[in-house]
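the three lines:
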Amino acid sequence: MSQKTAVTPPAHTVPPARFSHGVRKGHILQVAGQVGFLPAVPGEPPAVAGPSLREQAVQTLRNVESVLTEAGASWDDVMMLRVYLTDVAHFAEMNAVYDEYLADVAVPPARTTVYVGLPEGLLVEIDALAVLD
Amino acid sequence: MSQKTAVTPPAHTVPPARFSHGVRKGHILQVAGQVGFLPAVPGEPPAVAGPSLREQAVQTLRNVESVLTEAGASWDDVMMLRVYLTDVAHFAEMNAVYDEYLADVAVPPARTTVYVGLPEGLLVEIDALAVLD
Amino acid sequence: MSQKTAVTPPAHTVPPARFSHGVRKGHILQVAGQVGFLPAVPGEPPAVAGPSLREQAVQTLRNVESVLTEAGASWDDVMMLRVYLTDVAHFAEMNAVYDEYLADVAVPPARTTVYVGLPEGLLVEIDALAVLD
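prediction for all of em together
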């Protein structure tokens, strides 16, 4: 079994606590819950991509992808996505964004979608489990 | 590492977005969030097993089992179940249904149960992580 | 692939349904959702460490750790923590407790934090996925 390593995309915001954006050990890659934060600007607090579900969902998927890429993985390696929304009314638009974003993934991952509370201003959070070759 | 493959029980409803009901890669099998939908009827929208927690919980567990079976796995391979309920008042009945359903599993899986929002009419969602021999 | 085994810390309360506090199979260890229950007292119902987020969070992390230890694992093996809180106002204190508790973990795990409902009196639940050497 290879060593556990942190996966930290260079443009990601610093986590608000002692956790890693991604962790890899052996074939397993776990991506932490990502939200719609834009690439970090040094000295500035994290900024959300926009107030809409669409803006946040696209940026959240980009942030998941950045962790995958940094780990040498791709969407094709993703086994599971957990999608946390705050409003059932966002389900259709989330799925539209999601289907566009994952259009080229040959074997789509499994997914669970539930409706929870998130910090103010955030409409979506997504984490991922991947198994690499 | 073997290839990633989708696991699709033939009677399952078509997912509302680009995700798979199950995904297997190597020893890992991830089952997507299942709800109490009855076997699909061609040309009809998904139909819930009934309005009660019991009806939906039984059908949800059956749907998880269908994915396990389709992947050549069984409850004995399940490491983790995530149970999403909408009402704390359903906890006791969920556990009663669950204990009956898993009565013969030699080593019960780990489990987390939390209370979230689900689309209207749905009272329970369950996903599963399995490790196959 | 080694056999699936239950991991049951001796002082843990008995689960309210047919699930295991931890399950190990091969390199994978899954820790069930832990809450702030004190070590079990025979003949008594489970007792929460206290009414505050801090008391419950510390005890919850101890309970996760007990499962890790019982399985021969440590925080260094943890890939993912799922933190379920009931109130966004608890986020900062949760992070303070968490950062103290995990101060010595060389590669912090990934984490997702969401806000859900929990049974009355419980403010935090945490589960964990670990990959052992």
